[in-house]
Batch of 4 targets.
Target 1
Amino acid sequence: MHTPMNAFAIAALVFSLTACGDKTQVDTAASPNTPAPVAAPATPAAPVAENTVGKSVYGKTCALCHAAGVAGAPKPGDKADWGPRIAQGMDVLHKHAIEGFTGAKGLMPARGGATALSDDDVKAAVAFMVDQSR
């Protein structure tokens, strides 16, 4: 049963909810003290494509030594060990991985011992490990 008091309460509720509604009316007469519109934030950069070639080469060849640190091989993700190597630049890392390198910390066989790997495959694997270690 609806009593006059219930009808009044419902009307008051509807009125108050209407007052809380969407306020999208725009004042077309902007005052001189109106601040300039704020620029929209820059759109985020597109996601970087996964280095699937490097990941595959790492898994099939490089991980044999790098995952366990055999012969001084820096483990991917070890920022302390990779940091000085990365600081030398990618050209040096590529050269050492392709041609081989013997240093104070150990030995890097040419192409990781997989002579059939192309230069691009080796570079992709180096990039994969560097990306894991930044």
Target 2
Amino acid sequence: MTGVSFYILEKDSAQGKYIFACKLIEKAYRQGQFSFVLTKDDRQSQIMDDLLWSFRPGSFIPHDKMPCIPNTNSSRVLIGKALPSDDHQTLLINLSENCPDLDHQNARIIEIIENDETAKAAGRARYKQYQSAGFSIETHRL
């Protein structure tokens, strides 16, 4: 069963959300997990692409932006506004405002919620969708 973790940030900051996502991605990468970062648009994909090069001095996490050529991607991290057709990702970090395709196979889904009412309302809606689908859900307040 897919597990979903909601991380509720203390501050209302898009940059804080992206940096926190980078830290989670780095942890997954170091553990050898394949990750997919689902973004809402090309602009958000580019922000994550740039940050994964530089969010921490001396850091770089190998990654690619979709679309990429299947079976030649050696990255463990993919970024895109649509889920890839293959299911090799074990971790899905959802930065979009929508619930991802729940039929897609992931071992874990991460939701990062900024501390503002609009983001919280959208997060609650996704929470209900995951709950209705029978996913195991946990919430962390940071």
Target 3
Amino acid sequence: MERQNDHADCVGRFRPGPMIDNRPESLVTWRVTTAATAVATDVASLLGGEPAEWETSAED
């Protein structure tokens, strides 16, 4: 089957850090964003983190 959308299987994103003055700033830990609570819980469990809400104005 031909894939119609490269992001069709994407359920979340690993985020290395924010951009400050057009330069990436590293975080001490990774932020993983997802709209799926089950994915957040599973990723946190696998990586030793805690799921938490993140305020955003975009679709993250």
Target 4
Amino acid sequence: MTLPEWTKPGVYGALVGAIAVSVLGFTWGGWTTSGSAQEMADSFAAEQVTLATVPVCLGLSEADVQRVERLATLREASSFQRRNVMMETGWATLPGTDAPSRDLADACLAELALDGS
């Protein structure tokens, strides 16, 4: 069987084109693998759950009888220590859990706007 003369360059061109389209698609085209798509979905879901629980944190802070003292302690703490201080207040511990959530502490701090911003 004799193949036409253009077959070899045509096959090479198709392979190079497929590789180029794949590289461009994954770098600039927004294509993702199923693994990275799952990671993005998990991250987004965790972030949304944290944002949904911020009102619980704020409610716990409003119901706390030592709120004024604890807010003063939070304001006095450096920006690097505030998350730990927030976790020590107990406001970032959701009902039914034993340990405070670091993400919830960060989100609650942002919502409290201790710096006046």
